[in-house]
Amino acid sequence: MTGMYRQVGVETSVNTASPHQLIKLLLDGFFEAVTSARGAIRAKDVEKKTKAFQRAIGIIDEGLKASLDMKAGGELASNLSNLYAYISVRLTQANLRSDEAILDECITLMTPVREAWIAIADQADHTPVRGGLEIRA
Question: Model pTM?
Answer without folding.
Answer: 0.79
